[in-house]
């Protein structure tokens, strides 16, 4: 269960990509192109969160034009790529946005995510996160990375903020 007090202060959700927004697999084509699969339900979950006034950011250790494209499709303005120390990247992002870490949630699945996950007020993890990340998370999805874990996290955050019904009402 996500802490309601922490959720009420939430202004930013930052996400890892590989293993969170995707299943963590990398596909390479014969011409050297890299392919990733994103879950459409995760995307709508992020849009719902944005409708509730929560900014979304991506922090990833890899660099990919595919990530830029997906972020643009979802209206995610804050995309930080090629950063190994995700905690420092999250701190810098918060400082630039005038936010404190107490106003942030972070979702990650593997060891490079631990620092950011622990620094954020709310640490989130997919079902298939490595043991250390799962143990450090405040909440863990029933779904693995790339298979709806982000959507479930968004719904749980909205529920904890008492905004889920209001945001979903636009679709009824």
From TrEMBL:
SUPFAM superfamilies reported in the protein's UniProt record: HAD-like
Keywords linked to the UniProt accession: Hydrolase, Lipopolysaccharide biosynthesis, Magnesium, Metal-binding
Catalytic activity: 3-deoxy-alpha-D-manno-2-octulosonate-8-phosphate + H2O = 3-deoxy-alpha-D-manno-oct-2-ulosonate + phosphate
InterPro entries according to UniProt: CMP-NeuNAc_synthase, HAD-like_sf, HAD-SF_hydro_IIIA, HAD_sf, KdsC_fam
Broad EC category: hydrolase
Top-level taxon of origin: Bacteria
KW Metal-binding (keyword) present: yes
Keyword Nucleus: no
Gene3D superfamilies linked to this entry: HAD superfamily/HAD-like
Binding site for Mg(2+): 16, 109
EC number: 3.1.3.45
Co-factor(s): Mg(2+)
A GO MF term: 3-deoxy-manno-octulosonate-8-phosphatase activity
Residues the record lists as binding substrate: 18
GO terms for biological process, alphabetical: lipopolysaccharide biosynthetic process
Protein family (similarity comment): Belongs to the KdsC family.
Function: Catalyzes the hydrolysis of 3-deoxy-D-manno-octulosonate 8-phosphate (KDO 8-P) to 3-deoxy-D-manno-octulosonate (KDO) and inorganic phosphate.
PANTHER family, per database record: HAD SUPERFAMILY MEMBERS CMAS AND KDSC (PTHR21485), N-ACYLNEURAMINATE CYTIDYLYLTRANSFERASE (PTHR21485:SF3)
Subunit (UniProt): Homotetramer.
UniProt name for this protein: 3-deoxy-D-manno-octulosonate 8-phosphate phosphatase KdsC
